[in-house]
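Supplementary material to the annual report.
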Amino acid sequence: MCGIVGYVGKQNAVSIILEGLKRLEYRGYDSAGVCVQQGRRLDVAKKAGRVENLAKVAAKHRFTATTGIGHTRWATHGGVTDANAHPHVSSDGKFALIHNGVIENYAQMKTFLAGKGFAFQSETDTEVLCNLIAYHYAKEPARAKGRNRFLESVRKTLRHVEGTYGIAVLCTDFPGEIVGARKASPLILGVGDGEYILASDASALVSRTQNVVYLKDGELAHLTPKGFSLSTLDQADVSPVVDRITWSIADSELGSHAHFMEKEIFEQPAALENAMRGRFSADGSTAQFGGLNISAGEFREMERFMFCACGTAWHACLVTEHLIERFARVPVEVDYASEFRYRNSPLDPRTLFFVMSQSGETIDTLAALREAKRKGYRVMAVNNVVGSSIAREADGGIYQHAGPEVGVASTKAFTSQLLIGAMIALYVARMRDMSFSDGVEYVNALKGAPDLVRQMLKQAPRIKAIAKRYAHYHDMLFLGRLSLFPLALEGALKLKEISYLHAEGYPAAEMKHGPIALISEKCPSVFFAPKGEIFSKIVSSMQEIKARKGPIIAIATAGAELPPGLADDVILMPECHEAVLPIIASIPVQLLSYYIALERGCDVDKPRNLAKSVTVE
Ligand code: M6R
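Predicted assembly:
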């Protein structure tokens, strides 16, 4: 949540910062602001609303400075107002600060600082942090002898802080310098040609450089026009490791699409191909993963798997659970990361722990990973963003290689997680009882998934027409069974988050135990009705809805014999392997929710109250 950018170089800082903020807007869009340093002066422009509002305000200032910081906010402490927008300036006017995270002990520090005469203009925890830096700077100039006083006062302040932060700070006494630091909120440093850019993630700087340093928790970066240095909260110097980003700015451009969500839905065949590349054995009967850092023998010894994630990634874990238990016959537990971290659940020592996260920065998932490691478990990560906190802290993992996902609603990252989950199930199954020929059949089915997704995507115009007919409802149910029960949850989540339409996901047979009371001609149901052993049971559930006048959209396998007239609308899926079915079934629900949201005039890429990457608790 919240996106931050800091620039030190020779170019106009504001235009580079604004471009970066536009790319980080998916992290929050309640307000935006910039502060530039012109000599010993700090000039601030900030505004509630989107970055485009800020751009209009900033244009009037005609800023020309070459050092500055900028922020796009997802509100935590304090409402969505101009005053609460970042950057915040200390009451002595010496420091400006942008922040992503939550300062948990801010109230106590605010009382302390107010007692020392500091005044506050906002309700934010960030302004407290900024004033605390000013306090330490004024109080202890002598202690910083031989060291940079600006850097030392930030360091000193952060030692008193409880909570999470990614920050960038300017100081009037140090023109052309920025101090940045992170704890549990992401921060990376782009090393360009005579310029340095701090940012929450690579999308904000990849147009200027692909060379980046990933800051670790508890590290500070000191940027000057001549170079940069890294150090820890304990004043130890850190040797920077410069990594290269493998994707370019074109990958995060909208191109000919109306929205990132649309673009990412249509990128799914390619994302699936990328997730599979090089990951099947030479004999084509099982999966192989390069980065697990655990031998096949050790993997074989595991008697249980535990998966933790949030939101859509949690739904992908539920599907993975189904596939591992079905094909490998190994017990799997799935928990919300936010629950696991506080639940202290007893785990078997021979449990292999997995976390799934597109961003790799979701704070609850990161905390679950740390908790599992603290308890002595080996933790694997399924993650899309290379170099993310989760990727770096996990003992091993599998990158999704889905490319940047910008739309707040996860689509291509979800199906690539489903695919990797299916590959994990195959890998475990082939170590146990799955035969060579069943393995080959499974691998071939996975290889065929991108083409089946292409077929599903061709139905977009028809699904758009169906969406038009359902966009005016206020409630909707999504019903599925077995591996498609998590898809029912995912369909409901997708619809809620981007169209603000109330939706619930349920196992189809559970309807009778309560939710059926909701059914009337005003509440449509989306049923997953794949061919298979329980098809007839699903048809019975549909009959029960129909008997109560509930409109029905069926997402059914082509050739499945739905009684005529039972469903008001039918979307057909090609017949496919069980491991591929959830991937194929994802496409209609993604398209349905996308087109319903468009029809309702919603901002699909930036739904209200949400942010792409949830880096606060
Ligand atoms: O980056 P992560 O996969 O850890 O994100 C987890 C959830 O915040 C995310 O999937 C969220 O539920 C999406 N907005 C759903 O579309």
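The domain at 459-605 is CATH 3.40.50.10490 (Rossmann fold).
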